[in-house]
Amino acid sequence: MASWRKHARDTASWVSLATAGAKGDPRASAELSESIIQDNLRFFGIPQNEHDKALFSMLTELRGWAGMFHRMQTVPVEAPPDVLVRILDFAAVQSILTRSSIEHAALSAGWNGRTPFNEWLRRQEEKAEEDIYVVSDDVRTASTVATVDQSSESRVALEQEFEVR
């Protein structure tokens, strides 16, 4: 199993247990989806007043999917038979997959998993700002696109590749 899937599978197991206890109660499953979304937004350190914007951004990442879920939610005859389709549940799944893949990338880049993610990310951004080579006031080298886990050698190689193209 790919390591990025660990969080997703752990969350899926937790969701499975929670929904089994809810016995198909739509309110309980909606509360569960809301709880998952809130937990993942907190993980990323997104301020409460930015949650709507973050959700909108997440829902529009996969063009057409949110619209399809919204359509099946508002026009139930277009949904699969005997399936409750809600955009809220789609957003919860999106947030799980987003967090899982980003956690994996962060762990590969040196995050220890114990430091709050948003604090670690802020420190990485500050470190990257110190490490960027400024060519002029508004132009920076290809180092600005280098990821957190790249060494200085790989940054130099990236810059050289960028200059050749």
* Protein structure class: mainly alpha
Average pLDDT across residues?
Answer: 76
Q: Which stretches are low in confidence, meaning pLDDT under 50 for 5 or more residues running?
A: 134-149
Cα gyration radius (Å) = 20 Å
| Helix count from the secondary structure assignment | 7
How many domain units? Answer: 2
- Secondary-structure element sequence? HHHHHHH
Residues in helices, as a percent range: 55-70%
Strand content: under 5%
Termini, distance in Å?
37 Å
Major beta-sheet overview: none
Shape: elongated
Number of strands: 0
Give a description of the structure.
The two termini are 37 Å apart. Helix 1 packs antiparallel against helix 2 and helix 1 packs antiparallel against helix 5 (87-108). The chain folds into 2 domains: 5-112, no CATH class; 132-164, no CATH class. The chain is built from 7 helices and no strands. By secondary structure, the protein is mostly helical. It has helices at 5-22, 26-43, 51-59, 65-74, 87-108, 117-131, 152-164. Mean pLDDT is 76; it is low at 134-149. 64% of the residues lie in helices and 0% in strands. The protein is elongated and about 55 Å long.
Summary?
This protein is mostly helical and 165 residues long. Helix content is 64%, strand content 0%. The chain folds into two domains: 5-112, no CATH class; 132-164, no CATH class.
Topology:
Blueprint: H1 5-22, H2 26-43, H3 51-59, H4 65-74, H5 87-108, H6 117-131, H7 152-164
Descriptive keywords:
165 residues; mainly alpha; 2 domains; 7 helices; 64% helix
